[in-house]
Design goal:
Layout lengths: L6 H4 L10 H14 L8 H7 L3 E6 L10 H19 L3 E3 L2 E3 L4 H10 L3 H18 L9 E3 L3 H16 L3 E11 L4 E3 L4 E2 L2 E2 L7 E10 L5 H6 L8 H11 L2 E9 L6 E6 L10 E4 L4 H7 L3 H11 L3 H6 L8 E9 L6 E7 L10 E4 L5 H10 L7 E2 L20 E2 L10 H14 L3 E6 L5 E2 L1 E2 L9 E4 L3 E4 L21 H4 L18 E2 L3 E2 L1 H5 L2 H4 L12 H7 L2 E5 L7 H15 L9 E5 L4 E3 L2 E2 L10 H8 L1 H11 L6 E2 L5 H24 L9 H20 L3 H18 L7 H14 L4 H10 L23 E8 L2 E9 L4 H9 L2 H7 L3 E8 L3 E7 L1
Length: 839
């Protein structure tokens, strides 16, 4: 017991066992899991009986190994929220699952000969064990794995719903094709023009692919961002991705008058500055006009070796590839013939696949013009009066200003010119005001095999036919050969051919051999949690009507666009199909920061990796959880080099010792009627309840913990010399209740040691007696001509006469009032009294 209250107090304190989380935590964790302590039962029945239903969801993990520190952070934040919600009377739906399809498992199968199923489920088992050990209070009756056939059966049903609604369709699209692996690669899998897996040179090739028509919901996806409680940076990221821009479609004829090409521009006011024209190399007009040119074909092959990401990077790079075409275009406002180029920084998938180039007012065009010695014509002068000269410009002026060098439009504000030129060209049939979107339809086809098969049959007579719902799921074969080149599904001897057309019975029909993008799996999993074992429907519509939207969604900002946007699209599409009432999937979103080390992301290659096991195997799960929450606000990064699990462990050890000393004093009959300074301790307890409760509501767990540390010190001071009693018990029990969402194991154990049969996590959140914070007396500052001359105690709310009398009675104040005339006495109630004097 050395050092607890000093040497003189040591003999007065009972000897208690030390805090040993590695002994107390595992049995509690097993009990919570095995007894399904946090199981909600049937969500439909639970929500019908709930006064305050709350759907709390964390982004489910991918099973690529055991949990990393990022997982520990997100789950710890989420669990503190959930445990607090339960204690404040909410009925909480808190499920857990795994986003289990994907390329890492398929790569493990290819590279190590592992069965992707065994690899995936082994990793899930490892993560599940760690989640249980760390005490996260998930409902273990609400578990799903997206690779289970009973899950992807309903992913396939979702596809068929979208197909029936005209929201799923098939068309040709350019993709990154690896001839070595014989598969399509994501942009991120192309490194320096080569496949990251086999090193083969990757080319852009047209392939027939499945798409979801997300663009049909573009306006609603954009407008709906105003109605959800998400971080502004996430909403802005989605706004930018959707990219709604108002402008005009303008028709440029070829100089020879044979063809016309439409471009979209947000700045038709700059048309007089369009000095050249650029096509995407894949533009169909170029195939028609330049297809016989061997140099152009060689250029096309060179461009095809670049990924879309590499080509888009060229939007700001100076080394843009351009090919001068054998024809010119005509500027529709100046009548000038302008040179036409093909350039890799223009993509066929964006806009119309062609652009008018205005180098004075677009940096990308400016860089290209300087590289190719093309004219730069200023048509918008800055409003500040600075004169720009196209010959001497060092960068484009892309801002606002006054129109110049534009014939009849000179001198107008650029906005006025924009409207006027559009209207004038529209009268000639050469332009139309329109809205353009950056958003493109969602390409969901994947030529891989560890994913949900697309439930479509291709019939020579009937075309594309959806698999009947009663025949779902279309299962992945158990005997896929992941060592074959290309898609194992396509190479399987019977998967594609062992089928007849469900419409006409033709046995010449074949199955689609593509699988779905794994973002499809995660676009609706929050709905499946409402009935994860239901084999009759994907989710119960009536329960979805009560539980959706998810009240709080927690996860990383890296999913700001794709996952979150796709989930929003699916909910809106399912609403229009009559399956849900909600307009949005997630009402509130919390993005946690990263866990880093010495300012850098953690990784094995950097040698700075810390895994959760290293912490909880030494200090316990509560210490890991508390350290995470105390380190920073949830949105901020945590630099593990700056935090102290040792300090958190010491504090929890102090809470442990104080609680057991209280128990020992009561058992020994040495507990006093009142703790020392009991009124002060009661006040500090009430203050902690009010402060910590506000912090929990605001998700400020770090400042809540700081208040609990302060309360711990107050108990320590009040119980020195063994002065334990009813007030110290009340303070300790309150401390444990306030600490329970942060450190569930130690609080569960100590609450039991204090004699309670009920789990602390089933107790109500404490409330404060606010009357304790109303003091009978206040210290009043006394000033003479604004200078502090004393402090006096007066009753709370003392009037002018009482305050003045008390102030005059102070010896120092009286000496400063002697021999002077008091002109005025100013009272600020319960704060200060100021004597204004002269003489």
């Amino acid at each position: 017991m050395a050092g607890r209250h000093g040497e003189d107090a040591m003999s007065q304190q009972p000897d208690v066992e030390r805090y040993d989380p590695l002994r107390i935590e595992p049995p509690i964790a097993r009990r919570w899991h095995d007894e399904r302590t946090y199981s909600l039962g049937d969500p439909a029945q639970a929500v019908a009986a709930a006064d305050k239903p709350f759907y709390a969801l964390t982004m489910f993990p991918y099973p690529s190994g055991d949990l990393h520190m990022g997982h520990a952070e997100i789950f710890t934040i989420h669990d503190a929220l959930v445990r607090h919600l339960r204690m404040t009377g909410h009925t909480v739906l808190n499920p857990i699952g795994w986003d289990a399809f994907g390329l890492p498992a398929e790569n493990a199968a290819r590279n190590r000969g592992a069965d992707p199923r065994k690899w995936t489920y082994a990793n899930i088992a490892e993560q599940r064990s760690t989640i249980q050990r760390l005490g996260y209070s998930f409902d273990w009756d609400k578990v799903l794995h997206t690779c289970d056939d009973e899950y992807y059966r309903w992913t396939q049903w979702l596809f068929l719903e979208l197909l029936d609604a005209g929201l799923a369709y098939r068309r040709e699209a350019a993709v990154n094709w690896c001839p070595g692996c014989e598969t399509v690669l994501a942009n991120e899998q192309v490194v320096d023009g080569a496949c990251e897996r086999c090193g083969s040179e990757v080319s852009r090739e047209p392939r027939t692919q499945w798409f979801f028509r997300i663009t049909q919901y573009a306006d609603e996806l954009l407008d709906g961002l105003d109605d959800i409680d998400w971080p502004e940076r996430v909403k802005n990221a989605q706004r930018a991705w959707i990219g709604r821009s108002e402008g005009a479609e303008v028709v440029f004829p070829t100089a020879d008058g044979r063809d016309e090409v439409t471009v979209f521009t947000t700045r038709p006011d700059t048309l007089y500055g369009a000095t050249y024209f650029v096509f995407a190399p894949e533009h169909p007009l170029l195939a028609e006009r330049m297809g016989d040119d061997p140099d152009f074909r060689a250029y096309l092959e060179e461009v095809a070796r670049k990924s879309e990401l590499e080509r888009m990077a060229g939007e700001t790079a100076r080394d843009k590839q351009g090919y001068r075409l054998a024809f010119d275009m005509r500027n529709p406002v100046t009548g000038e013939d302008i040179p036409a180029y093909a350039a890799d920084y223009v993509l066929m998938e964006y806009g119309t696949g062609a652009i008018m180039a205005v180098p004075a007012h677009d940096q990308r065009d400016f860089d290209f013009a300087r590289e190719h010695d093309l004219p730069v014509r200023v048509v918008v002068q800055p409003a500040d009066g600075e004169a720009l000269d196209g010959d001497t410009l060092t960068e484009a002026h892309a801002g606002e200003g006054v129109t110049v060098n534009s014939g009849p439009y000179d001198g107008r504000d650029w906005r006025e010119t924009k409207e006027a030129i559009t209207a004038d060209l529209a009268e000639r049939g050469a332009a139309e005001a329109t809205v353009n979107l950056r958003l493109r339809d969602w390409l969901i086809s994947r030529q891989r095999s560890w994913g949900a098969p697309i439930p479509v049959i291709h019939c020579p007579d009937c075309g594309e036919v959806g698999v009947p719902v009663d025949d779902l799921p279309v299962r992945l074969p158990d005997d896929l050969d992941f060592q074959v080149q290309g898609s194992p599904l396509a190479a399987h001897p019977t998967f594609a051919s062992d089928v007849a057309c469900p419409a006409c019975g033709d046995d010449a029909a074949t199955r689609d051999v593509d699988t779905m993008d794994t973002f499809v799996d995660s676009s609706w999993y929050f709905l499946r949690f409402l009935s994860p074992q239901d084999d009759q429907r994907a989710w119960p519509s009536e329960a979805a009507g009560r539980w959706l939207p998810v009240d709080q969604y927690t996860g990383g900002v890296e999913h700001a666009v794709l996952h979150l946007l796709y989930a929003r699209f699916v909910v809106k599409a399912m609403r229009d199909r009559g399956h849900v009432d909600a307009d949005e999937p997630f009402d509130a979103l919390l993005n946690q920061g990263q866990v880093i080390m010495d300012g850098a992301s953690m990784s094995k290659s950097k040698g700075n990796l810390v895994v959760p096991g290293e912490v909880y195997e030494q200090f316990g799960a509560d210490t890991l959880r508390g350290t995470m929450l105390f380190a920073s606000a949830p949105e901020d990064d945590i630099d593990w080099a700056d935090v102290s699990p040792t300090g958190m462990h010491k504090w929890l050890s102090r809470v442990w010792r104080l609680s057991l000393e209280q128990v020992a004093a009561e058992e020994a009959g040495t507990a006093t009627a009142d703790a020392r300074d009991h009124e002060s301790l009661r006040r500090e307890t009430a203050r902690a309840v009010i402060g910590a409760s506000a912090d929990y509501e605001a998700r400020k767990y770090n400042t809540a913990i700081a208040k609990l540390m302060t309360l711990t010190n107050e108990v320590l001071d009040a119980t020195r010399d063994g002065a334990y009693g009813p007030v110290s018990r009340e303070a300790l029990e309150t401390l444990l209740l306030l600490l329970a969402p942060v450190a569930p194991f130690i609080t569960e154990e100590l609450y039991r040691r204090l004699g309670h049969a009920t789990s602390i996590h089933e107790e109500a959140w404490p409330t404060a007696d606010e009357s304790l914070l109303v003091t009978e007396e206040v210290d009043l500052v006394v000033q003479v001509n604004g200078k502090v001359r004393g402090r006096v105690a007066v009753p709370t709310g003392a009037d002018q006469e009482t305050a003045e009398a008390a102030a005059r009675a102070d010896d120092n104040v009286a000496s400063h009032l002697e021999g002077v005339e008091v002109v005025k006495v100013v009272l600020v109630p319960d704060k200060l009294v100021n004597f204004v004097v002269k003489g």
